[in-house]
Amino acid sequence: MHRFAKPSVFLKITAPILPWLVGATVILIASGLYFSLIASPVDYQQGATVRIMYLHVPAAWMGLFCYVGMALCGAMSLIWKHPLADICARATAPIGATFTALCLITGSLWGEPMWGTWWVWDARLTSMLILLFLYLGYIALVNAFDDPERGSKAGSALALVGAINVPIVKFSVDWWNTLHQPASIVRVDGPAVDPSMQLPLALMIFGFTGYYFVVLILRVRLELNERRIRALHLSGMFDDNGENSTAETKPYDPSHNAEASQ
Amino acid sequence: MTGFFAILQRDLRLALRQGADSVMVVAFFIVTTTLFPFGVGPEANILARIASGVIWVSALLAAMLSLERVFQTDYEDGTLELLTLSPVSLELVVLGKALAHWLTTGLPLIIAAPLMAVMLNMDPAGFGVLMVAMLLGTPALSLIGAIGAALILGARRGGVLVSLLVLPLYIPILIFGAGAVEAALLGVSAAAQLQIMGAILLLALAATPFATAHALRQAME
Questions:
Q1: How far apart are CA A222 and CA A28, in angstroms?
Q2: 3-class DSSP state for residue A180?
Q3: A106-124 per-position pLDDT tens digit
Q4: What are the extents of the domains in chain B?
Q5: What pLDDT digit, counting tens, does each position of B33-77 carry?
Q6: Is B55 on the interface with A (CB under 8 A)?
Q7: What ipTM was predicted for this assembly?
Q8: Which of A151, B61, B90, B137 lies most in the core, judged by the most C-beta atoms within 10 Å?
Q9: A121, A132, A158, A165: best mutation site toward chain B, by most B Cβ within 10 Å?
Q10: pLDDT tens for residues B171-186?
Q11: Chain B residues inside the 8 Å CB shell of A134
Q12: Strand partners, A244
């Protein structure tokens, strides 16, 4: 696994994967939306409102998934000091925060017609809100230092400490008697969701997961390129206007530098 | 262990000689609590109903505001660097500093809490449980807060940042602390909530010194 931690190896491996991943994600989300919005039955109690669930459940799943991923990256960067793990953790945080916010927003849109209220201080809702705060705290901490290295390390420690909230979110509906319904998909005695609703839900969950990996790869690439540009600036190859000061006529050619650094 | 007591003694002495810190924390606690009757209205029933929550929230904020001084001055004048290099294990140093923080902020808050409970018209049945809950909860606040205080060393606008980092982690203590008082006021046994708070304290005592010491080492790199 450690050899994948080299940025150049990461770029080489992800380059051919990315188009396939984008294609799969588009197909999954498009078909998931078709099945969830058009080709799935309405719920006998909830009516068409049940369709919010196809967005809400995958978003909630991704909120937790991203946090676990971020904490694992944080642990890897603390233990093995992989620079790539730092970048992955940093890149994951805004994605996870967005999914968590999406989960809370869709949840309250669903709650208004179903529970008759936008928000209740229920264990699962509250712990999800805390998860959002943890994401925001992580993002704020990582960006609070002049030295990005130090920010990443402090962030990794915080991500690990905050990971204690993940099982609380997951099991809140089992531990406390709450308004939010208990788990109905991952259960010992099989899912309690009708098969016609399982298909769109599964498509959306896989689609969202694919989307996460696509955005993650793009963000990591961006960060690596930014670092490369910063390093070139520091080494004095460019003056402050971003022009090549050693050869005035030649514009900056990124592909040339990419080859040079590999 | 001598290192631990030396740190504790030093921090307490500094807090006493520089004086105002503990007094400020208690003053902040009292002023914040006093704001609620103005905001909610002076009706005795409502105040009695929200008293335990108000006292806990104010205590949380007061404990949090004083966190910055746990490591900040030592970081700035280089003491922390020497402590990191010293043969005393950094985890013990952290424990000593957290204990000193608790003795100078948590303990005064516990003493001030019943006073505010009286002013907020809380039923005397809850006083004992409130004090026990705070006795279990405030040391955990100091221990968990120390992680945040160590993480923000060298950061821009650290004081604001620490609230964003630490307050989400304080929420369980708030829930069970206020819940224990609530139970006592309803005449139910508060043992379950107090036991959970004890568990949180033990967990914090066992785990947080390592996290804080790790964050300090990073800040020193």
A1: 25
A2: coil
A3: 988 888 887 788 887 777 7
A4: 2-220
A5: 999 888 888 888 888 888 888 999 999 999 888 888 888 888 888
A6: no
A7: 0.77
A8: B137
A9: A158
A10: 889 888 988 998 888 8
A11: 168
A12: A238
Position A237: which residue type? M
pLDDT of residue A238: 60
CA dihedral sign of residues B188, A124, A104, A75 = positive
Interface list for chain A against chain B, based on CB atoms closer than 8 Å: 78, 126, 130, 133-134, 136-137, 140-141, 144-146, 150, 153-154, 157-158, 160-162, 165
Buried b (16+ CB within 10 A) or exposed e, A22-52: beebeebbebbbebbeeebeeeeeeeebbbb
Q: List chain A residues with CB under 8 Å of B171.
A: 126, 130
Question: Beta partners for A44?
Answer: none
Residues in chain A where the model's pLDDT stays below 70:
1-5, 44-45, 173-179, 182-193, 237-262
CB contact under 8 A, A141 and B218: no
What does the alpha-carbon distance between residue B17 and residue B97 come to, in Å, rounded to a whole number?
16
Q: How far is B68 from B149, CA to CA, in rounded Å?
A: 6
Of all residues in chain B, the percent with pLDDT exceeding 90 is 36
B105 contact partners, CB below 8 Å, separation of at least 6: B21, B22, B25, B62, B63, B66, B138, B142
pLDDT per position as a tens digit, B72-106: 888 888 888 888 888 888 999 999 999 999 999 99
Q: Residue holding tokens 């402050």?
A: A240
- The dihedral of CA A235, A241, A243, A247: what is its sign? negative
Which amino acid type is present at position A126? T
* Chain centroid offset of residue A197 CA: 24
Tell me which of A161, A175, A176 to substitute to probe the interface with B (most B C-beta atoms closer than 10 Å): A161
Whether B128 contacts chain A with CB within 8 A:
no
The answer to whether the beta carbons of residues B148 and B215 sit under 8 Å apart is no
Buried-state track B13-51, b at ≥16 Cβ within 10 A, e below 16: eebeeeeebbeebbebbbebbeebbeeeeeeeeebbbbb
pLDDT at B94: 93
In chain A, what's the furthest Cα-to-Cα distance?
A: 72
Q: Which of B153, B34, B166 is nearest to B83 (CA)?
A: B153
Distances (CA, A) of B68 to A136, B62, B90, B205: 20, 12, 18, 20
